[in-house]
Each structure stands twice: as structure tokens, then as C-alpha cells.
Design brief:
- Helix content is 30%, strand content 36%.
- By secondary structure, it is of the alpha/beta class.
- The chain is globular and about 45 Å long.
Length: 174
């Protein structure tokens, strides 16, 4: 079985969650399958964008699961973009729109000091709100984004077109 098929067969769909009209793609069953999780991390870690990055920035919360494993595999530093109010110290914060509301993400300013080039890691690319939020926070600090690594891309939402950097997705849904 090809990796994409394994992923597709493992992700669970929840129609009308968290609200009507949205089909929630649940990636959590992947973490119950260590062999599949390892294959995904091995595949993602080989992407060219990670070779040239100074650090990986993972987005709260499922992005942490993928980002930490990729950081370990690629021996790259890991920075976290967390939901508002979760980080101590001097933070930079940005708001973003969800498919179903508004939220914000924060990054500790000190965590960025020693790094210039970043790869953003998240679980899923839908409308691009969270990724754009992190991208804007980084570029305002004079940082460069080399790319986005996600497990799932919802291609029909066309978020890739709104981004100014490459997107690496293990699987895409039309």
C-alpha cells in the first residue's frame, strides 16, 4: 500500500463538526499506529525545505506532534506557536480567522533570536489562517519562511495560492 493510501485509510471523517457544513479530518488515529506515524515522519523529514532551515516552528496543538518528531529526525531546533495566554515572557501575538471563528497565536520573542530561516509545521492546511498568522509574525521580526510542511492539505480551499512559500503535504483532498 502506498503511503498516501495508508494515510487516507487511517484518517477519520466527522461530518458537521465542529459545525454544519464542515467535514473534520481527524488525524489522531495515525498516532495510534506507530509504524504509519514513523513512515510519515520519515517522508516529511526528507523534504528539501528542512535541509536549509535554521529551525522548525510548530503550530498548536497537533502541529506539535508532527513538528517535534520532524525536529528530532532532522536535528533542527523546535519553536512553538501557541494559543494566546499559554506562553510566559515577552511574546508576539497575531490573530487569525478560523473556518468557524477567530483565534490567536503567540511566539516567545527570545526563541527566535538565534534563527533566521524557518519551516512551519502543522497538521492540516485548510484556509491558511494559522499559517498566515505565524508567517506574518515571523516576517515582522525579519525572518524568512522556507516553506510549510503539513500532513493533510484540503486542496479545494485553495489556501496554497495565498501563501508566498512552498507547501509540502503528505496527502491532499480535492
Amino acid at each position: 500500500l502506498m503511503l498516501q493510501d495508508e494515510i487516507k485509510n487511517t484518517i477519520k471523517d466527522y461530518p458537521n463538526f465542529p459545525k454544519n457544513g464542515i467535514v473534520f479530518k481527524d488525524i489522531l488515529p495515525i498516532f495510534e499506529n506507530p509504524q504509519l506515524f514513523q513512515k510519515i515522519i520519515n517522508s516529511a523529514s526528507k523534504k528539501e525545505i528542512f535541509a536549509k532551515t535554521d529551525a522548525i516552528i510548530a503550530i498548536d496543538a497537533r502541529g506539535f506532534l508532527l513538528g517535534s518528531a520532524i525536529a528530532l529526525k532532522t536535528s533542527k531546533p523546535l519553536i512553538l506557536a501557541r494559543k494566546k495566554g499559554k506562553l510566559p515572557g515577552d511574546v508576539i501575538t497575531g490573530k487569525y480567522q478560523l473556518e468557524y471563528g477567530e483565534n490567536s497565536l503567540s511566539i516567545q520573542k527570545n526563541s527566535l533570536i538565534n534563527f533566521r530561516k524557518f519551516v512551519i509545521v502543522d497538521d492540516l492546511l485548510a484556509t491558511g489562517g494559522t499559517v498566515n498568522c505565524v508567517s506574518n509574525l515571523l516576517t515582522k521580526q525579519g525572518k524568512e519562511i522556507l516553506g510549510l510542511s503539513v500532513l493533510v492539505e484540503l486542496k479545494f480551499l485553495n489556501a496554497r495560492k495565498k501563501l508566498s512559500f512552498p507547501v509540502e503535504a503528505e496527502i491532499g483532498f480535492d
